[in-house]
Here is the input.
Amino acid sequence: MSWSPRNVIGGVAAVCTVVVLGTWPAAGTKAQEQGDAVNPWTRQSQEDVDRKNVGCVSCHEPDTPTMHVSTVVRIACVDCHGGNGQVRRPDGADPGTRGFEDTKREAHVQPRLDIWQTSANPINPAAATLEESREFIRFVNPGDLRAVGLTCGTAGCHAPEADTVWTSMMTHSAMLWGAALYNNGAWPSKTPQFGEFYTPDGQPAMVQPDPPPSPRLQSQRGILPFLQPLLRWEMSQPGNVLRIFERGGRLPVEIGIPDPFEEPGRPANRFSDRGFGTLNRTDPVVIGIQKTRLMDPTLNMFGTNDQAGDYRSSGCTACHVVYANDRSPVNAAQYASAGNRGRSQTTDPMIPTNESGHPISHTLTRSIPTSQCIVCHMHPGTNVLTTYTGFTWWDDETDGDKFYPEEPLNLSAAERAQVQLRNPQGSVVRGLWSDPEFLAEAGSEQFNRQLTNTQIADFHGHGWLYKAVFKRDRKGNLLDSAGDIIANADGNLLWESLRNPTDEERETGRPGVPVHLKDIHLERGMHCVDCHFSIDVHGDGNLYGETRAAIEIACEDCHGTAEARATLLTTGPAAPAGGTDLTQGATPFGLPRFQSRAGRITQRSMMDEDLQWIVPQVVDSITPGSANYNERARLAKTIQRDGSTWGTTDAPDDLAHGNDKMTCYACHSSWMTSCFGCHLSQRANEKTPMLHYEGTTTKNWTEYNFQVIRDDVYMLGIDSTTTGNRIAPVRSSSAVVVSSQDANRQWVYSQQQTVSSEGYAGQAFNTHVPHTVRTTETKGCTDCHVSAEGDNNAIMAQLLLQGTNFVNFMGRWIWVATGEHGVEAVSVTEQSEPQAVIGSDLHRLAYPDEYAEHLAGGRTLEEAEHHGSTNALDIQMRGEYVYIADGEGGFRVFDVAQIYQKGFSEKIVTAPVSPFGQDTNVKTRFATAVASPSTLAVDPARVRLPENQEQPIHMMYAYIYITDREEGLVLSTAATLLDGNPENNFLERAATFNPNGILDGAVNLEIAGHYAYILCDRGLVIVNIDDPLHPQVAGEVTGIRDPRAVAIQFRYAFVTDADGLKVVDITTPERPRLVESATVSIADAQGLYVARTYAYVAAGAEGLVIVDVERPEQPRLDQTFNAGGAINDSRDVKVAMTNASVFAYIADGVNGLQVVQLVSANDTPGAFGFSPRPTPQLIATHLTGGPALAVSKGLDRDRAVDETGHQVAVFGRRGGRPFNAEEMRRLYVRDGDVWTVSNAPPGPAMEPR
Here is the structure.
């Protein structure tokens, strides 16, 4: 059938054609339902309405009889709701009596399903409402998209809006599904092809515009040619073929029926005995989308209505009928007094005011508060509305003593299932917030004043907790509005900071009060509806695959540019030709929304009839003499590309930060959330319903566990094609690792990376609009360029997405090389969520019994696995394999796919079959070190589609790099271990490089971009591997004695040798420079790890030496830690983050693996800063069978590109990407030399011509 919403594609009117999937009879077409006839309701008299309502008003006394505030609208109850309005309540028939109930049954449309227990919205109905009759759905919610063709969408009412909202992003959610599928390798196209639509009778639909958009519109504007329903997970095929998915194998074992032919301790470990797409050989991403609540439900369905801050209806009324979701006047405005429990304040005696799931009043409104929007727009924690309000996900740890019970909850399976129906997070079953009552009060003033380190929001979508973000310096100190440090903030002071400042405080500041970093627009009283108007919220009838492609508003439309005042015509990606004239819009109070008089633009609030404000103009901020003049703004907006000329915009092509090159919010954002870690853990024995389409209940369900949430980083890259490929902020948005437990409760894989469809790592990044605009707390010159003070090397590494080694993921097992004893994998965390490091502060909070047992056992880690080798000197784990530099044994790769599986007796093997079936040993004379070019799983061999607009993956990522003390640099093939084909798991030497013995005595190496930094007898030799099979010497540094280890961060190489720690400037690798004055003397410096502004040196008998390298050319000893002598033979160290705390994993030759908590979220001063000073504490130890020599590095979660501009992680927008090498170097190199800046003007300003 075809519906007839008219939409304009490139000037051509298009009709969206709907293809019904299934064999059910379809309802009448939208065209038939609406047509072009005059709506008869528009001709009704009030007498007509009263006659229709005679039965309804015998019971009901609605706040707003027509739901419309306007008295001009004359609509009867049955015109919208249906039912029989002529049935009157008998005299004396009170609620509950038989006469009353009989009358109600006759007057009301009756449901088919039993989910409608009361007049409130059903609790967590998901797809169940699709089985309900259209007539009943219309009765309980005339604004539902299945009913809207008979109500709001009829001709003469709101037909255009109903047409367009049906195809809007808020209805079909194509971007989320498309990103999840492509980023994790489940679907080859980066263009979204799946979206959620239903016909009026509840059947899934495929939608395609007729005529389709042109190829140019598809490529440049992101308009889609079709969207189809998501495929059934049972027919999907795995995009990441882990060992368990590989072809081959016998019939899976049935529970309770043993296989007599199965080898003991070696299960027949496959998901199916047939091909891909059979039994469980399917893609877990697809089942996660179908069954785990991720930004669900869309406008197609009712909200979950099951916990505080999560109440709404569906369709039009999801937005236009306000529910009580937040007690904060900042977020909820005049609705704050209604609370956060979805209770009504109606005058209608038929509606209980003590029951959740009712709107505040029976009123349609355009005064929609932010608290209503955030019911949907809160996932993930990086979503723009949580940041707009100044909040992000709580990290499961901060102030955890108030969130975890003293005694474990120990929920039953049924209780756990009930909790996770509301909140799919794994850690919730251990926390007090599993109780809806606790959750509802977690954002209250009384609760927040008890906290020490944060504050909690009053909204709780998905059952989650959201913590406030405050202004801090890089060390993590809280700052007030003047930038002064606040030494002793408590819960009372933090609570005070959440309210908006008064007019006087805006002028004078708030000395001694922390700054809550809500967006300045919200702080001034602006809600979402004050910026996003009809097209932004309803759509324009086109199908879009990116949210921002569907937005018509742009910053410049209201604020103008450095060259001109605002025209008040929209210019965003979805703006119609010529733009929408913003002066034609009106507030709900009948007043003009915008007025422009004498160069001054005034805007009136959509929420408060008495509130208006002057819209600042950019041109005024750069004009001396203007009341709004700001020298910082003038410098930023007029500085030219030469780095010295500023003050005027007379030469727009020469501007360094012109609007054609950069988004406004690249500089004007104060902070952003990055989600460094998302653990999707699937269990076969969890039987849950689909959340979409037919709602079938099946086995397999996936938990959703965010792991590291940070607001201390800022990163930039190139925006998507649809938004102009300009410089924009970049966030880490979905750094997925996946796990799966089979029906026998064996973890058949755990915490494995995904690979995107074209081969980039699935640790996804995205360009985005942070919605954290501030006036004072914006970005300065030294946030994005090399500082003249030399103190922002780590900041630059972070900004450019090269990573800082701070938020890396180690997981449950720490891999240790132990020389002739081989390798050991030591279990250092709990298996369940939150995945607390054993002995840590989080362990004490979330696992009190296990923590007490750990203390009683002398802080010893008991669980470990071992595999022998010749002489394991270095180790690197990636995916299901561990790489080893095995001395005389050469380069070896062990298969560790079964490390988590209890059914396997030997969990680490040389190979699961004989060398004839798999051989991953590359012989070298004496392998000393091994380096993967990335800890991320990158596959350069995957098929590429031009439409995806991806950069090529450099071929250096197809190899593993080994140093051999006699052979120099050896390259081994590696890509066959990622291709899912078990028949080609054979590695071979690809290249050997040691011209004239220059690399003799090679002991260590680091890969940074297409350069290998190799330590050998001659010192530091830099090898160019741009052509990996034909390396070339690029540079050499002498003056390094008996080198041991090397680490790279942005422009510097850090080296340990016989003298201690040394620093090499590698801005130009062909011209490296040893910084002579930058040596830190350390008696026995061994292994080295640089994380943000600290270098961690394994220093033998001294233990762990921590060096402050914030200024790399002026390093200084910060502290030495040996845990009272317990760490006395330190050989290597790696650092990683779990939740909100930081840990060092130390290989101690005598004492084994030592685990040190460096930063505690609750006890370390400044823990939430970019680089807090460590407060080390030994928390656990494991005595290895041989001397612990090396520890495997964790997964780089903040690294999207290497030092030479080669992308390694996927971006979720077509055309979005990190900077390439040339773009990076423009920020800090001029004429081959380092170019530095300060935040002060470089000289006097030029005057305009």
Q: What stands out?
A: The first strand starts at residue 2 and ends at 9. DSSP finds 29 helices and 48 strands in the chain. Residues 377-517 form one domain.
